[in-house]
Amino acid sequence: MHHVEKVPDVVFKTRVRDESVEGPNPFRWQDRTTQEIFGGKRVVVFSLPGAFTPTCSSTHLPRYEELYDEIKAQGVDEVICLSVNDAFVMFQWGKHQGAKNVFLLPDGNGEFTRKMGMLVDKSNLGFGMRSWRYSMVVNDGNIEKLFVEPGYSDNCPTDPFEVSDADTMLNYLKSAK
């Protein structure tokens, strides 16, 4: 498993609210590049296997949402949740979760995740290719710190959740000051 030093250069296909769009669904597609998202900023990213899945919904996302202000207070500009899901799924999940602070970033084609070396096969669950669970601090595109769950493998029967959690991240940020 190789670790990259910089976040990969990709274009994310996102949906953004646009009041000028007619009808009941005022959203349009917007491409967002790695440079736009990470350039000149210190960003916390946590990546998970899937929207609406149990651990992601019960603890992973809610705790980052809960500790958002504390994380920001450690010199972080944005907190991003990444998953290999399409923009529509990520939007509905965010709404369902009541996520107001964490930015949900869809890696629909898994390109960012693949280039991060974090793409795994979860065909045993009927998921296809998804992201391994990890978190990181990205400083102007450079990976300052990476927490990867143990046991990285295809068709892993378990879903480790020990080090990519919000509390571990907050402790790191406090100690790094």
Automatic annotation (TrEMBL):
It catalyses: a hydroperoxide + 2 glutathione = an alcohol + glutathione disulfide + H2O. Coiled coil: none annotated. The active site is at C56 (cysteine sulfenic acid (-soh) intermediate). Keywords: Antioxidant, Oxidoreductase, Peroxidase, Redox-active center. GO terms for molecular function: thioredoxin peroxidase activity. Its EC number is 1.11.1.27. One of its GO terms (cellular component) is cytoplasm. InterPro entries: PRX5-like (IPR037944), Redoxin (IPR013740), Thioredoxin-like_sf (IPR036249), Thioredoxin_domain (IPR013766). GO terms for biological process: cell redox homeostasis; cellular response to oxidative stress; hydrogen peroxide catabolic process. Residues 1-177 form the Thioredoxin domain. The keyword Oxidoreductase applies. Thiol-specific peroxidase that catalyzes the reduction of hydrogen peroxide and organic hydroperoxides to water and alcohols, respectively. Plays a role in cell protection against oxidative stress by detoxifying peroxides. PANTHER family: PEROXIREDOXIN (PTHR10430), PEROXIREDOXIN-5, MITOCHONDRIAL (PTHR10430:SF16). Belongs to the peroxiredoxin family. Prx5 subfamily. This is Glutathione-dependent peroxiredoxin. The lineage of its organism: Bacteria, Bacillati, Cyanobacteriota, Cyanophyceae, Oscillatoriophycideae.
